[in-house]
Write a structure and sequence with these properties.
Layout: E1 2-6, H1 20-34, E2 38-42, E3 52-54, H2 69-82, E4 89-92, E5 109-113, H3 122-127, E6 133-136, E7 150-151, E8 171-174, H4 183-193, E9 197-200, H5 206-213, E10 222-224, H6 230-238, E11 242-245, H7 255-262, E12 267-270, H8 275-278, E13 285-288, H9 291-299, H10 306-316, H11 319-334
Parallel strand pairs: 1-2, 1-4, 2-3, 4-5, 5-6, 6-7, 8-9, 8-11, 9-10, 11-12, 12-13
Helix pairs in contact: 1-11, 4-9, 7-10
Length: 335
């Protein structure tokens, strides 16, 4: 089986710190290669893979301002379809633009929909749904006007997330500094519960950060560590009493939620989007409706068995489970 895996080019594959789409693309690619699948990864030239790397874009456009996103995305997507006859299947992880090329080739195509940045992009998905097989990353993110071949949750390499059976007394915010991700709400919960808050992630909305987050960062009660990767990332995820994931949008998945639970850290989240699919209420964390509910949940966090958090991820969100589901889908389509 010869697979063309089309990654986004906003970040490197795998990303150095932030880049959830690129991370999932990398994890799936490497798992498929380990199973003997012939995978060509179409990504930025600085990407890393055990498969075959194909690249026209030298660097990620979110890291290098000299890279024009529209120009290099056009070149990046075009090279996959120019080589379509070399592959049994094209797996698109790079949003909606590649759909417009799908009728120009005979090669079957799978598109993982990582979320809808705006309702305005849905018409593109509707136009090509007869040609392309869509995968949802959660049942919550299935659009009612689209047909799907499967729902396949993201998986993570459990061995990369050491289990911390104790953690600390600190609360954790881990994600983009953006109103959607609930940074200000996390600060409020930490303040009302008298716990220190550790924050990690990129600043995606500078105005929101300056107005709602930065004034609270004092290095003592609220500490901001910036974007973290590697061993620091896993130590941060595991070294908390609980992860606060107080989102104000219907999040399609939530990798940091699964990663935290893999380390043994329970999650307190607003019950929106995919959160009820990821978190077992009262077992791996708490699903709440507002800040008051989150404050109450912090007081109950001692009820959660950290080993149960890791066991849940091992059973439901492993890379192996994700790769097996995708392989089964590929084989079904190729039959």
């Amino acid at each position: 089986m010869r697979i063309a895996m089309l990654a986004p080019i906003s970040w490197r594959t795998p990303p150095r710190h932030y880049g959830p789409w690129e991370l999932v693309t990398s994890l799936l690619t490497e798992a498929l290669v380990a199973r003997g699948v012939d995978v060509t990864l179409f990504a930025t030239a600085d990407s890393e893979t055990a498969g075959t790397l194909a690249a026209v874009c030298p660097r990620p456009y979110s890291e290098d301002p000299s890279i024009d996103a529209k120009v290099w995305e056009a070149l990046h997507v075009a090279q996959v379809f120019e080589r379509a006859r070399e592959f049994d299947l094209i797996h698109n992880q790079a949003d909606f633009v590649p759909l417009a090329f799908s009728r120009l080739v005979d090669t079957p195509m799978v598109t993982t929909i990582h979320g809808f940045s705006s309702p305005r992009i849905v018409p593109v998905y509707k136009r090509y749904q007869e040609r392309v097989s869509y995968v949802a990353i959660s049942d919550a993110d299935r659009h009612p006007e689209l047909r799907y071949a499967a729902t396949i949750h993201h998986g993570i390499p459990l061995e990369a997330f050491p289990f911390d059976p104790v953690g600390t007394d600190d609360l954790l915010f881990f994600g983009r500094i953006h109103p959607h991700k609930g940074a200000a709400e996390a600060i409020e919960v930490a303040k009302r519960t008298g716990r220190r808050l550790v924050m990690a992630g990129i600043v995606q909305d500078a105005e929101y950060h300056a107005r709602c987050v930065a004034p609270a960062i004092d290095g003592t009660r609220v500490r901001y560590d910036g974007p973290v990767g590697g061993e620091v990332r896993t130590r941060t995820l595991g070294g908390a009493r609980a992860l606060l994931h107080l989102i104000s949008f219907d999040e399609p998945f939530g990798l940091s939620v699964v990663e935290a639970m893999a380390c043994g850290t329970p999650v307190i989240a607003f019950a929106r989007g995919a959160m009820p699919e990821l978190i077992e209420h009262g077992v791996t964390g708490f699903l709440v409706d507002d800040v008051e509910g989150a404050v109450d949940a912090v007081a109950r966090i001692g009820e959660i068995d950290r080993a149960a958090c890791r066991a849940s991820v091992a059973a439901r969100f492993s890379v192996d489970h994700m790769a097996d589901r995708y392989l089964a889908l590929y084989r079904q389509l190729l039959r």
